[in-house]
Amino acid sequence: MFDNCFHNFTIIFRYNQMVKKSQKPDSIQRMSAFGTLFHLPSFYFLSPASFAICILPSCIFVTALAYIYMKYRKMSMLQGILGSLRPAVVAMIAKAGVTILISAVFLSGAVEVALDNISVRAILWFAAALVLLRKKKMNPIMVMVLCGVMETICVLVMKWI
User: Fold this and answer.
1) HEC states along 104-158?
2) Residue 40 has what DSSP assignment?
3) Nearest to 27 by CA among 66, 56, 69
4) Which residues partner with 118 through β-bridges?
5) CA–CA distance, 58 with 112 (Å, rounded to integer)
6) Of the candidates 104, 142, 144, the residue with the CA atom closest to the CA atom of residue 120
7) Which pLDDT score, from 0 to 100, does residue 2 have?
8) What's the distance, CA 58 to chain centroid?
9) What separation in angstroms does the CA of 62 have from each of 47, 48, 53, 83, 124?
């Protein structure tokens, strides 16, 4: 009886030590340590943990918001709230776009105008994407895929040269 209790205590102690040494997020490190403790691949424990922590709460939140919207979409107060949120959403999207543009164009990530800090290819892809989107009215997803394919081709050609 005491051997079993001692064995359980050592398992719990080893588990806590593994969790403390890990630098992963708390839930992920616990599942990884649990898999290591019982000599199982941690993939079997990390997949449900990732789903439960990253995906499931978002699904529940979005489903609740969709339910509330479908129930009260005719209310003028809700329409006023959604109307006032539109400028904030546009501002957040614009900020994200400018941040991505800066990180793509300036190699160091900071806005420093110097020839060795500017990615000419990124400027070319941006200009080409702008022309395709505004003048040719192409699908934005298709334009992103096309720019990614062209950049991949350029990188491969540069490696071979």
Assistant:
1) HHECCCCCCCCHHHECHHHHHHHHHHHHHHHCCCCCHHHHHHHHHHHHHHHHHHH
2) -
3) 56
4) 106
5) 38
6) 104
7) 44
8) 13
9) 21, 20, 15, 19, 38
